[in-house]
Amino acid sequence: MNDSSAKPGRLNRTIRWVARGWSIASIGFVLLILVGELVYPHAPAPTEFRDLLGLFLFPFCTCLSMVLAWRWEGLGGIITIGSLLPFYAALRIMDGRFPGGPFFALVAAPGLLFLFSWTLGVARTKDNTA
After folding, report:
1. DSSP state of 59
2. What count of Cα atoms within 13 Å lies in the side-chain half-sphere of residue 106?
3. Is residue 111 a contact partner of residue 15, using CB atoms and an 8 Å limit?
4. Cβ contacts of residue 105 below 8 Å, gap of 6+?
């Protein structure tokens, strides 16, 4: 086996494990915030549609899809990004502004890495069959 065929596999594994580690950190961070809100709530329970939609799209769908990405990288990555974009759009429509700071995007960033890893894996599979 030549060195050029080993590099894409190594890069793919590295990206996959960075995405997995970052997804664990992201899910842990979200769970820490949710548990903190349950123990010491700083606001009333979410009852408005915008709050419930935001909770469904961001922490629930984003975290669930990162768990799915451990098994199905492409599907999990697509759902992660596919739940973050409507989350931003819904907040823009309902509040008239985007959320401040990069925090939501940083928590969902493993979705992009999972998609990139999946794309590298698909490309490598096509190269090996051609």
Report:
1. I
2. 8
3. no
4. 84
CA dihedral 68, 72, 74, 76 (to 10 degrees): 0
Domain ranges of the chain: 3-129
Q: Residues 122, 44: contact at Cβ < 8 Å? A: no
End-to-end CA distance of the chain: 16
Q: Which residues, 6+ apart, have CB-to-CB distance to 82 below 8 Å?
A: 65
pLDDT exceeds cutoff 80 at 115? yes
Cβ atoms of 96 and 50 closer than 8 Å: no
The one-letter amino acid code at 56 reads: F
Please check whether residue 80 is in contact with residue 58, taking contact to mean a CB–CB distance below 8 angstroms.
no
Q: What is the pLDDT of residue 130?
A: 61
Helix 3-39 / helix 103-129 crossing angle, nearest 10 deg: 150
103 CA to centre of own chain: 12
